[in-house]
Specification:
Order of helices and strands of chain A: HEHEEHEEHHHHEHH
CATH architecture of the largest domain in chain B: 3-Layer(aba) Sandwich
Low-confidence stretches of chain B: none
Oligomer: heterodimer
CATH class of the largest domain in chain B: Alpha Beta
Distance between the termini of chain A: 46 Å
Radius of gyration of chain A: 17 Å
Largest sheet of chain B: 7 strands, mixed
Distance between the termini of chain B: 73 Å
CATH topology of the largest domain in chain B: Restriction Endonuclease
Structural class of chain A: mainly alpha
Number of helices of chain B: 11
Low-confidence stretches of chain A: none
Number of strands of chain B: 15
Chain lengths: 209, 365
Amino acid sequence: MITRNVILTDVLFSLYATDKLKWPALARTHFQRLLYLCAALSALSNTEWGYEFSNSLYGPFNGQVSSAADELVHRGYAEALDVRVLRNSKMKANFRITESGRRNVEFISNLKQERQRLGWIETVSGILNIYGPAVMSKLAYFEPTFIRMKQENRIGPIDLSIEENQSIQLLHRLSDELKKTYSIHLDTPTSNLIFYFDYMSRDIGKGRE
Amino acid sequence: MVAKPTSEEATKLKRVGDEPWYWLRENVPEVGPWEREFYDLLENIKVLWEQYRVNRINLAFLVNWSTASTSSGSQHIKDVSMIQKKQNAGNSQFIFEINLEGFVRDEIDMGTEIDPTMIAVFSQARDAVIIWFGDSLDILYKGMKWNPKNKAETLKEMKLKKRDKLMPLIDYKKILDIHYQEYIRGEAGVDYWFQGKKDKILLNSPERIFQKNLFMFLKNDCECDAALEPMFKNSSRCDVRASIDYDIYFFEIKWIGLCATKKENTDVISAENPREESIKNAIAGAYQTKTYIEQNNSVQYDNKIKMGIVVVYDGYSPPQTPIDYPAEIRDFPLLDTAEYQLVTLTPSALGKQLAKQKKRTSKKR
């Protein structure tokens, strides 16, 4: 039950943070990807993420994250736009935060723990703003822990614990080298995030406009 | 003990390490509280410079460490043409002070025409970051210049990181065409002819070369999650799978022509006794793909295959494509085919080949 509330709040925070950045309404895939990246890199902000994503055919996935948007619409905190029904009866829509949702975020974030979580989602989405939602989805597909599972043909929850988290290990490996070879010290969560996304996005759209 | 980066990681790291943001962050204490905002600003400047470098520009921007809103009507660095007009009208004597959001806050009249040397001296006198926006992009702080090892390469690589749209999978034909034009045709992005046997014999295992290259293209340039040789539900494998939302596309790569082979019991690859893959093999491949789709698209499976595409690379000289597939393949709704010629014919040879093909088709009828 606690997890369900955490997920609902996180999805609401995602809609809030991206709306502030003037992103277009988010599809379910987008907040799945955004929250997955927040979770994969949460060790940088010492945040205990609290729920898992699974290795699905379509990328990192959490069923509750997917359905949370419907509940937010039901509660009046978000609105569904461009609603379409797919041939397999699944419903596709884009979601945007409402005024009531915004007020709710401001109220919830009075709590220290929630403020910290919102801060992290805002930090990650702020840096991803450089790339936009389309590239963000790609970056989630490229997340090394997820990639490793796919390569090993393993299904089930993606283990993002510090021992198994390939993104954090990659960051340690590379920032160590950056320090040695280029005398560059990445000592803040933001600088680590900037470096991580800069590094991971290097080949996207290589040589193309 | 932290593991060492792999050679691929080290190569990528070299490119990242040369970026100006890292140099400035290391040297300029003011960057500290504004890491993200300053990164945003630099990205904007890099992309703008790339757009305007071909014009005659001579602008200098001094960074003011604030995001405080400016008076309405303030110009933004995106209005490069307007700012340059102002510069021209002022006999090129201005340094423009910009805030972290890229708005021009003030103009500093230097009293004489500005140039990179003067900018360097001024940045030292004011302990300021100044960006010289001319035929080269120079970034200066306290008279020090951002001077990475591979500056030319770094400037060449600058491109807009934001993409509103990547190529959608639904346009898979367009994706394959662009991939062919940009990476395959004339060995533009990958080598596939055996050395000394261009237009005659392909390297050994050509399917691996084409598979990997198409996979990388899908992975980096298209809106999908791409996987190389993933397993189907029935444990068989396809060459490349691409998925987006609830749709799966898969690509089966075939080639026709001659390829080099590995000499028995040695590691030597030779073109002496090449292996031939004929049109027959490509058609057999299409049948195999049709079977994959039928077996893996059962009603009990949640994930449906939207389309299977057989891609044939034709290494024959003269080319033997287009392939006349049997009706069973042509009419199968979830299967499409695409063919690409690897040998580029001269216009006269191409004309002759088209005439021959026309003759063959009319004879059949």
